[in-house]
From TrEMBL:
Phylogenetic placement of the source organism: Bacteria, Pseudomonadati, Bacteroidota, Chitinophagia, Chitinophagales
Organism, as annotated: Deminuibacter soli
Ranges of residues in domain DUF1254: 103-233
Coiled-coil annotated spans: none
Superkingdom as given in the UniProt entry: Bacteria
Start and end residues of each DUF1214 domain: 374-480
Protein name (Swiss-Prot/TrEMBL): DUF1254 domain-containing protein
Gene3D superfamilies per the UniProt record, alphabetical: Domain of unknown function DUF1214, C-terminal domain, Domain of unknown function DUF1254
InterPro entries cross-referenced by the UniProt entry: DUF1214, DUF1214_C_sf, DUF1254, DUF1254_sf
Amino acid sequence: MRKTIPLAVLLAIVFACNEKKYTTSDTAASAATDSTAIDTVTRRFLPGPDTAMKITEAYARTVARDAYFWAWPMENIYNRRLAFKQAPRVGLMNGVIPFAPLNNLSMLHDYIQPQQRWVACPNQDVVYGAAIAALDETPVIVQVPDFGDRFWVYQVVDTRTDAFAQIGKMYGTQPGFYLLVGPTWNGVIPKGITRVFRSKTGTAFVVPRVFQDDTPEDRAAIQKTINGIDVYPLDKFDGQAKTQNWSALPSLASPVKNDASGETRWVFPDKFFDELPAVLKDAPPLPGEEARYAQVLAVIAAAAKDSLLKKAIIDEAQKAESEMVSPLLQFRNWGIPLASHWTTANNCAAFGTDYFTRTAIAKSNILVNVGIETKYFYQDLDAAGNRLNGANNYTVTFAKDQLPPVNGFWSLTLYDEYHFFVPNDIKRYSLGTKNKTLQLNPDGSLTIYVQANAPAQRDNWLPAPKGNFSLYLRAYGPKEAVINNTWTPPAVVKVK
């Protein structure tokens, strides 16, 4: 057993080493001995908090408030994993959203329905799929069919909502089989795998998106292609492409309570710190985060022994939810300011240690693509800086040759104040590339009418609901002018 050196002796060695001048081999040997002792001191006292130390409530609250904010997106994703774990088979949750057991995929066969509340800011430009991979249990195969000229991308993010796999048309990805593995996996890669992507966390979220025109013809044409999309455990891989009939999925009950207005809740202040150790184990610290992890885990350990301290950190989590996280639902409260009150973010799905942006996006529109895949522009206000509201009429006019510059497609989507669709008579929630009947003005410009009542130009009408709402512009396969914010959306003008 290693002999324990009294702290006083160690400190004396440290102080003495600062004064010594070594000039002979004997003193050099002595210096090496002293250096070993110093290293022992460093290893013993620098890694993190002393968990035997009694701490104050004020300190615990400070740590808890900070941790609640930066870990909020990770707990959000991890709790979705726990929900998917309860899926009895591949199907559609409540009949409207992909739902499957861990390490398996579920796909829609058409646009997402307006009543879903599982993920904020859905779009009706693509056919979605969803799989949550437990990479700490098994690697998974991601199957890519031949999409031809159709625009497509598979979003693949880890527990932090950072992307770690590049699979899509913009990457020149070829049909084949791609392998997702966890941070410590070192197994044998079977023959037939095109490429391997390694996650930094034990959980991965895979969301295929395949563009579909808003026409009956394309709804029929897309079926054969999407039936070749799949995700499944490595032990099911036989080198042969699997085919599914995604149009025949059963409706499954939700394992969680859905919010009638806003997004389904995935983070709960009263349970947050009970769940956090498992989440942090799933997502090991990034370089430089070691002390941050150790600090909050030490507070959690202290709270487990002190009911008053536990009560205090729960109270602080509740305050952080209402004071710090909830306001981030509104786009006008964060983002990079652009012309005419639009905002954007430049590091979507590449957040790293940008805790503010990561949490802001997780709260308002989680599961965004990286910038080369999709650029997002957000709007809560009209050109005069007033809140968008269905009591008013608005226009959004793209000048001639000034539609969003993309290699894929673009759309302008309207959401209610909770960032979901509001059912309307014509079942239209966005306008853009998918719409083949948009009418240009005589000068070649395009005007979209955002209002509650139908305008004369119905093909260009984006129906507005009662109350406050937001607009959201997507540019899939953005060109450089969009990526670097040289091109920005036109103003939302209130019509007098």
